[in-house]
Amino acid sequence: MTVIFDGIASGMLLFLISVGLSVTLGLMNFVNLAHGAFAMFGGFVAVTLLNRAGIPFLAALPLAAIGTALLGVLFERTLYRRLYAATHLDQVLFSIGLVFMSIAGAHYLFGPQQQPLTLPTFLQGQINLPGLDMGVYRLFLIVLGLAIAFGLQKMVTGTRFGAQLRASVDNPRTARGMGINVDRIFTLTFALGTGLAGLGGALGVEMLGLDPGFPVKYIVYFLIVVAVGGSGNITGSLIAALILGVFDVAGKYYVPQAGAFVIYAVMVAMLIFRPQGLFGRKAAR
Amino acid sequence: MIDLTPLTRATRWHPAELVFWLLPVAGYFLLQDNLVLLTQIAITALFCLSLDLILGFAGIVSLGHTAFFGIGAYAAGLMAAHGHGDPLLGLLVAGICAAVAGFISSLLVLRGADLTRLMVTLGVAMMLYELANKLTPITGGVDGLQGMEIQPLFGSFAFDMFGKTAYWYAVGVLFVMFVIARRLVHSPFGLSLKGIRQNVGRMPAIGAPVNARLAAVYTIGALYAGIAGALLAQTTQFVALDVLSFNRSAELLLILVLGGSGCLYGALIGTIVFMTAHHFLSDMNPEYWQFWLGLLLVLIVLFARDGVMGGVRRLGALSKGGAKA
What we know:
The complex is a heterodimer of chains A (285) and B (325).
Chain A: H1 2-27, H2 35-53, H3 57-78, H4 88-110, E1 126-129, E2 132-135, H5 136-158, H6 160-170, H7 172-177, H8 182-208, H9 214-229, H10 234-254, H11 261-273
Antiparallel strand pairs in A: 1-2
Helix pairs in contact in A: 1-5, 1-8, 1-9, 1-10, 2-3, 2-4, 2-8, 2-9, 3-8, 5-6, 6-8, 9-10, 9-11
Chain B: H1 5-11, H2 15-30, H3 35-57, H4 66-81, H5 87-109, H6 114-134, H7 136-139, H8 164-186, H9 188-198, H10 210-236, H11 246-259, H12 264-284, H13 289-303, H14 307-324
Helix pairs in contact in B: 3-8, 3-10, 3-11, 3-12, 4-5, 4-6, 4-10, 5-10, 8-10, 9-10, 11-12, 11-13, 11-14
């Protein structure tokens, strides 16, 4: 039971980080391998605020998200938008370039070691039920993840912005013709995606660790979530992330010698038999 | 009657090409102290050539080309570590292993579009990395594969500590493989690959079996990569887990776009420029080399998509235009 619980918690974390990628990769059709770099940025913002400025954890989280979102807007405005129409290969090369730069930058600013993070006391400790030990922080992650998933789903299906986003993605030209400012929608969406990545990165310091290698170490996990969950599908991403989290934690717990092998094998098999993902629909363009 | 002169002219060796191949000879005499680096350049050039065949000519994007490099390196390494140290035999076996792996994975890779291909190739390479990492008794895991004994080349040229034999061996293999690749891309087969890259929809209409051709070139690319990996293993007498790392795949892509993909000399020149820059920059500042690497990638994508060879071609066009005017 505890294994499943931990798996769900780490799945929630994966979901938070990858849902932004699911939007850029799945809906806007941009292969952004630098997504992990944004998550890392959020993590570093949170750690710096906590350890150097002494800002409380709960306040540092939204600041990390906002900071990363602003960085996302900056990059989208100046660089990413030039490459929306480029080939996938160009997008891959470009984002790998960003990843390399972010790794070296993090190295330069923070050094190669893992960053320490101390949780506030009310998030430490465990709740012990018969047969189930729940870490308070993990419970916090699960609740937060569910809340955000619910909020996003409501936003995409229920608000004017969500409708405009779906229209822009399905057919940018027609959307533009209807008077929707597609550029602005994409910028906002990109900001939302990177902001969530930043939040996830900040939340993940405790569980995934944070060092300059972060963007490469976890990029495959994020890609798997998107690949399995289907493009731009929030519920799909959530379910895929949960499955992945549970399998990953259970795998490490029960068959440590297999390592991450199982996860990669599942991804490749998945992509071959259902290229559009478990719950996917066809991407635009 | 169709006029084939442009095609036959392209097959003929240009004088500049002959000059280019004098470079390794000149390099041997002028840079005696740097033979190890030059050997590395030759090996990476061969590896890059293999990516050029599948990406530049056939248009298959791959983020996991190291998979075949690694297979070749481990195959040759394991052979040598278990007493079969003949270098050419090792090369052959490594090439065959990689080609078989390439053929099998081509069945997976060719099923999807760009995005799926990226992820499948990446996934396959990561799987192999994990496998090599976990099979410590066979591969040595993180510590690398050691204890290789390479017999003298052709039974008479031993691998010396100055790397002279290794250098000529690597350059010789590179040259032979290059000539074969050159024949290949100018053959009808090579032309059909270009056609596939430029217009997938039309190729079946003129009777080209698209998937069979792509599978074939992917297998050949894997063979080349395997041989490059084997060369690395044999000349350094060591196989590090790093041969399968993601960074190596990414770096290789960078080298290829730096030189200019879709042109065999692009792969070679890109490697020379990149490795030389790497050598000098990481001497000055090893830790942040990666930063400049990333910046370079971003700049290439934004401003100079066709690489060094594209620049050369543009210069050539300019001077021709100037001559006419």
